[in-house]
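Entry type: protein chain
Record version: 2
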Amino acid sequence: MNSNWMKVFIAAIFEVAWVIGLKHADGFLEWTGTVLAIWVSFYYMILASRNLPVGTVYAVFVGLGTAGTVLADIVIFGEPFKAEKILLIAILLAGVIGLKMVSGDSEKEEAES
């Protein structure tokens, strides 16, 4: 995995953090952490989109963030486990992985030119 895709992954991790923060933040410190997570998330997404296709970056960012948020709800906050949710997350992640694999060829072509 090259550094640009690592930036997308980091951005998605911080996206999960700020989405959880929006729901659970009560005090100043939690809101500060949430705003910081928003900033870090979008900063890394913007950095990655400078060298990767923007549409693919955004789709991967949102897909990983969605999957991470649903899994965090189940694991951390005791949301009921449903097989349907896991199946749909697997389908979502398959699409995200497919987008990354398809965009890998255009990355190499851009680097060569």
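Comment: The helical segments are 3-24, 28-49, 54-75, 83-112.
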